[in-house]
Amino acid sequence: MTNYLEVRNLSKRFGDFSALGDVSLDVVEGEFVCFLGPSGCGKTTLLRAIAGLDPQTSGTIRQKGRDVSALPPAQRDFGIVFQSYALFPNLTVAANVGYGLVNRRQNRGAIAKRVTELLALVGLPDAGPKYPAQLSGGQQQRVALARALATSPGLLLLDEPLSALDARVRLRLRHEIKALQRTLGVTTIMVTHDQEEALTMADRIVVMNHGAIEQVGMPQEIYRRPATAFVADFVGSMNFLAGTLMAPDKVRVAGVDFACPVQDGLAPGQKVSLCIRPEDVRVRDLPADISNRVPVEVAELDFVGAFCRAILRARASADVAVTADFSSNLIRDLGVDIGTKLDIALPPDRLRVFA
Amino acid sequence: MSLAVPGLKVGLSRDDLMMRAGVVVLAGVLLVMVGLPLWALLAKGFEDRDGKFIGLANYVSYFSTPALFQSALNSLQVASVTTVIVVPLAFVYAYALTRTVLPMRWLFQGISLIPIFAPSLLPGIALIYLFGTQGFFKALLGDGSIYGIDGIVIAQVFYCFPHATLILTTALATADARLYEAADVLGASRRRVFFTVTLPGAKYGLISAALVVFTLVMTDFGIAKVIGGNFNVLATDVYKKVIGQQDFSMGAVVGMVLLAPAALAFLVDRLVQRKQVALLTARAVPLVPRPKFARDLFFTLFCLLVSAAILAILGMAIWGSLIKYWPYNLGLTLDNYDFAKFDSNGWDSYWNSVRMALGAAVFGTVLMFTGAWLNEKTRGFGMMRGVVQLLAFLPMAVPGLVLGLGYIFFFNAPNNPLNFLYATMGILVLNTVAHFYTVGHLTATTALKQIDPEFEAVSASLKVPIWKTFVRVTAPICLPAILDIAIYLFVNAMTTVSSVIFLYAPDTKLASVAAVNIEEAGTTAAAAALCVVIVLTSAAVKAAHLIADRFLFARLQVWRRR
């Protein structure tokens, strides 16, 4: 596995505002990487720096061993797709896709053949003679993708490519783009603020916040073992219970001690958050000696379709509330309703502790 | 992203270098067309007749000459009175066009634009026919005279009306129907809706219209020249000083005095416009007026009245140009159109105007659109682009007479290598393009801002040179705006008097200037005839534009259809 892209100590400042602070990152050849984060986190800034569109203030970028840090976009090797598609409205779909090929002094026949091939690849074999305005948003985005891939770039950059589309089209295109990327094996970086998009499409996710990288990892890793409170909160839903670290494997919340995985980096006595995902809260068949058992009462029950989201208030202390996801089966079997008294358990191996 | 902290020295692509070179050239061209002539004018004001530096002496003598100072007051008076009349008139007219159901709306809109196609002396001439010493309705005036402030104001109202109407129509057209529905639901009276929704929505348009009218009147020369009589204003003073007395330094001083209010009005307008936020969001529902008999009848009658007045003035000029010997022999003739009888240039001045207007339209459009593109799309290079932006905005604040005067001083200087341009068609084209630069630049910039900002990024990633994308994509998309600029330049080049009156040579005399000369010589009918020819030409070009837009370009721009 070789590093296709190496970003080192990249910073970008606008006046006093730091848009990117000392970011370093490696991307492996053929990999699909997602930059994920809230708006203003620096993910687009990082992508545009990699493209050379808005150069960094300091730091280096190496692409396939070549230092491209100071090169203008035209001298770098990438294809790019924007949220707005940026299709040329006055050119036909075929002319759009062939736009970068015409300049390479290929003969007409070869260009036409390549365009046909690309349009077939993105599933629009008959769109060639149409104008972009005659296509739907999803179709336009596919044309934009074909145009970006036409010159066979080594790096494909996708800047929120699905954000302007409606939900159904977005779901379908997610799979198509991912499948296409796998077929072509082109190294791809996608910027998105949609965690679900990142989780389903990426080989690796780079979670960013305030111009810095919070965590880099595979989707499961990011979801299961978030490295910071920010990642835990931003990706998926998470309960945050305020407590104090009593021992490396013990957190006290509202006077009750909870067993948790051993914490190395934190000192006993420190204020911490004890975290658990709503779907990890156990209710059924609790053994008598299970640890982290909490008697609760159902305070609210929101029907969300496939499951219900319940807010459970600890019977011992009304300030402590936990959100849990209950399947419809569970609700039926246990007769859960507002006011129902239950016992739940927070499995220690599912607990995360953050300072 | 001009705030980016410099640190890394980024390499420049061939595109970047080309664009930057383009911006430098553009800055140079604008400096020659706008910056240096104005500088020459400024410097001239501090020199005596022999070119020696004498500090503020000219200014001191100006402000201590009561007759000259009186002209400044006269200008202010005429401009204020005209503004107070035109703006409400145009507001009601624009309201009728946008908020009521008018029969044949397009016709009323078209008639309101007529004065734009005429040189400013046309209404002056028409008023002379109607109320002059031998006018049809002279008797109505009693002891009064049309020569003087009354005549100037009436003619200025005609001349400024379309400009104010255009601005206010735009301001009133951008209304959100939801606001009116909300007001209705809340039970607000129509009066209250007008004062709480309609008027605030048009506030910036009203301010803008008032400032534009004020500036137009302050700086116009043709009307005061024809019908001003002994009522002197700043614009005629400049002309008298320079052409009559050959006192260039004093001319420069009066020019600077004329520049001050125009520049001030421009600055105020910029400041006000900056405060304006987009009233019409993407979600707004456009307001479509519903028929209401009494209201529509009232506004239709109002528009009929105003349109009749505009047509009467235009009609009077046309009729006057066709009459044998006013007012004694009212038989019709085309003799007045045989311009050779009245001016040694004959019809040549007309063809000069057409050539000049075509030249300005072609050269100006290319320069303005390419310039706006360079300035908009060049990466980095903030300082130089700022200079270009400033020079592009400057002409808006500079009256034509003042710019023309600056051109004399700058291009006629013996040590200027561009001296060869003096007294050629080239300098007329250059001056006209400079005079009307700002509007074209703004039109182009607005059109460029509306297209996807990532086109250049895409072509860079596809390794296509940026100029190729300019030719294949950007310019074709902006074709409607490009044509608007060209027509705007053509019409203004045909009608302008003020900036070119100092710059023509015997063989490059323009129709509008010839009209001033012929009128000065006392042959009103021939001057009217020349004005009519100008109106017909510019109106015909505009009509051709509209027809072409409707039929030809619809076919060229299939891609706009969904």
Explain what this protein looks like in three dimensions.
The complex is a heterodimer of chains A (355) and B (562). By secondary structure, chain A is an alpha+beta fold. Helices cover 25% and strands 34% of the residues of chain A. Chain A has helices spanning 43-51, 93-97, 99-102, 108-121, 137-149, 167-184, 195-201, 219-224, 229-234, 328-334; strands at residues 3-14, 17-28, 32-36, 58-63, 66-67, 79-81, 155-159, 187-192, 204-209, 212-217, 239-247, 250-253, 256-259, 271-276, 293-303, 307-314, 321-327, 341-345, 352-354. In chain A, a hairpin with a 2-residue loop joins strand 1 and strand 2. In chain A, helix 4 packs across helix 5. The two termini of chain A are 35 Å apart. The model of chain A has no long low-confidence stretch (mean pLDDT 91). With 562 residues, chain B is an all-alpha fold. Chain B has two domains: 16-64 and 335-562, Orthogonal Bundle (MetI-like fold), CATH 1.10.3720; 78-333, MetI-like (MetI-like fold, Orthogonal Bundle), CATH 1.10.3720.10. Chain B contains 23 helices and two strands. In chain B, helix 11 packs antiparallel against helix 12 and helix 18 runs antiparallel to helix 21. The chains are: A alpha+beta (355), B mainly alpha (562).
